[in-house]
Amino acid sequence: MVVAIFVIACLAAGLGIVLAYRHRSRAIAGDSARSRARGVKPPAGSAAPDVARAELANNLVTERLWKLAFAAPVESQLVDLKQAQIRDAVSTLLKADTVDATYLPRRPTLLPQLMRAMDDPSAATDKLARIIAHDPVLAADVLRLANSPLYRNSPAPIETMQRAIVVLGADALRGLAATAMLQPVFRATRSNFPRFPRMLWERTERAARAAEMYALKTAPQDRFEAQLVILLSALGPLVVYGATLDEYSRRPRIEPSPSLCVALTASLGPQVSARMARQWEASPRLAAAIERSSVESLTMALCMGELLGTLSLLVMQQVITADEGFATARDAGAAEAMLAPIWHRLTTRE
C-alpha cells in the first residue's frame, strides 16, 4: 500500500514537472512571437531563435550524456523508498535558504577582474596579458587551451600571451582565462562515479567554444559573456553531484543509484547554477540567461552552446554519429550554414 501511494506521488510529481515545462515553453514562445511582431529580425544567415526548441533538445541530449557519465540504464527507473531518502535529503539541502559552504565551489581569485572586463571592452589588452601572466600555472593552462584543436586556427603555435591576443582576440582570451581558472574545480576527487566530473568538464570546454562561435555569428558583443555563462551553468551539476555522493556516504547501506544521480543532476543542476551565478556576483543578464528567464541572444547562445558541446562529445564517445549530431543541432533551430563551421571545429580530431 505504501509503495503504491509512493508510485502515485512520483507520477503526480512528474506530471507537474511536465506541465510546468510546457507552461514555460509556451511563455518563451509567446515572448519570441511578440518580438517578431515588433519587427525584431534575426541576423542574416541565421534561423529565427527558438529558445524553447533549443532548450528542449539541449535537455534531452544532456540527460543522455549524464546517463553515459553515471553508467545509468537508458530507461528511467522507479525510485524505491531507500533511494527516495537520498533524493529528498539532497533536494532539501540544495533548496534551503542557506546552503553549507562546503558544497559550493570558491570563486577563483582573478575571475572578478575578468568579469569586470565585460563592462570595459576597451581595456588595454596588455593589461589582460599581465593579469594572466602573473599566475604561471594559469598562463600555462591558457596557452594549452589556445593550442588545442578547439581553438587553434593557425599553423604556428601560440607561445606567448601577446601572440594569443593577436591570434584569438581579447574576448576569446578572456574566455580562455576564465575556462582555465575553473578547470581545477572539476577535477575528480571521489571514488564513486569519477567519470562524471571529467565528462562534465569536457562538455563545458566544448560548449564554451561553441557558444563563443555561435555568439560571434549572431551577437558579437556577447562573445565573452557567452563563454562565461556556459562556465557558470556547469557549476550546478557539479554541486549536485557532490551533495548526492555525500548523502550516500552518510547512509553506507544504501547502494548509490546511477539513475537517481542522473535525475537529481538533471532536475536540480540548473537551479543550483542560477544560485551560484548570483553568489559569484554575475551580472543580472548572465543570471537571467542561466535561469532561461529572458528571450535574447545570450540565452540562445547558452542553449546552443551546451547542445553542440554535448552532441560533439557524444560523437567523440562514439555514442552517435557526426551526421546524427549535426541533424539534431540543425533541428533545434539554427541555420545549417551557420552551424557547419562550428560543428566542424568541435568534431575535428587534429
How many whole angstroms does the radius of gyration measure?
Answer: 20 Å
Number of helices: 16
Poorly predicted spans: 1-48
| Helix content percent band | 55-70%
Order of helices and strands: HHHHHHHHHHHHHHHH
Mean pLDDT across all amino acids = 82
Give the biggest sheet. none
What is the 3D shape? Answer: globular
Q: Give the N-terminus to C-terminus distance in angstroms.
A: 59 Å
Please tally the β strands and state the result: 0
Structural class: mainly alpha
Q: Tell me the β content.
A: under 5%
Structural features, described:
- This protein has 350 residues and is mainly alpha-helical.
- The protein has helices at residues 2-37, 51-70, 81-95, 111-117, 125-133, 136-146, 161-168, 170-182, 195-218, 223-233, 235-250, 258-279, 284-291, 297-316, 322-331, 336-347.
- It contains 16 helices and no strands.
- The termini are far apart.
- 41% of the residues are buried.
- Residues 1-48 have low confidence and may be disordered.
Helices and strands, with pairings:
Elements: H1 2-37, H2 51-70, H3 81-95, H4 111-117, H5 125-133, H6 136-146, H7 161-168, H8 170-182, H9 195-218, H10 223-233, H11 235-250, H12 258-279, H13 284-291, H14 297-316, H15 322-331, H16 336-347
Helix pairs in contact: 2-9, 2-12, 2-14, 3-11, 3-12, 6-8, 7-8, 8-10, 9-10, 9-14, 9-16, 10-13, 10-14, 11-12, 12-13, 13-14, 14-15, 14-16, 15-16
Provide keyphrases for this structure.
350 residues; mainly alpha
